[in-house]
Amino acid sequence: MAAVIVLNWMPYYYELNRQQTQRLEGELPARRKQLLQEQVDRTADYIEHMRSESEKRHKVQIKARAQDACEIALNIYRENKNRENHHTLVESASLKTAISLPVVMRGPL
Q1: Which of 66, 71, 58, 67 shows the shortest CA–CA distance to 98?
Q2: In angstroms, rounded to a whole number, what is the distance separating the alpha carbons of residues 44 and 46?
Q3: Angle between helical axes of 2-80 and 93-106 (0-180°, round to 10)
Q4: Could you tell me the pTM of the whole model?
Q5: How far apart (Å, rounded) are the C-alpha atoms in residues 8 and 51?
């Protein structure tokens, strides 16, 4: 009698198992797509954060270079303000040397 009950319920459990398997197989690609999208979003956020940080660093470096250039120009002016001919100031080797020194000493940005 137990065998009859088991044989009557087997098709039901088989069908239930088949339906659950189909449902899970349908959900799996959607879940993978969702996980992939989350990873892409996190990566995009990280890239944006790093870009922003890089931009901040570059602004600080550019500001420092601009301040150095102003100091150099002011020092050259102070050294040469009593000269009669301003064309000699522009052509002087000290101006050319002073302009090229910060690039050589610090290296590229």
Answers
A1: 71
A2: 5
A3: 160
A4: 0.49
A5: 66
| Closest C-alpha to 86, from 94, 98, 77 | 77
Burial of 76 (0-12, 13-18, 19+ CB in 10 A): middle
Question: Cα(64)–Cα(57) distance, rounded to whole angstroms?
Answer: 11
CA angle 9, 11, 16 (to 5 degrees): 95
- How confident is the chain (109 residues) per 10-residue block, as mean pLDDT? 67 81 83 93 97 96 94 87 64 58 48
Amino acid at 59: K
What length is written for the chain? 109
Q: How far apart are CA 24 and CA 18, in angstroms?
A: 10
Rounded distance, CA 62 to CA 99, Å?
15
Under DSSP, the state recorded for 84 is S
> What's the N-to-C CA distance of the chain in angstroms?
88
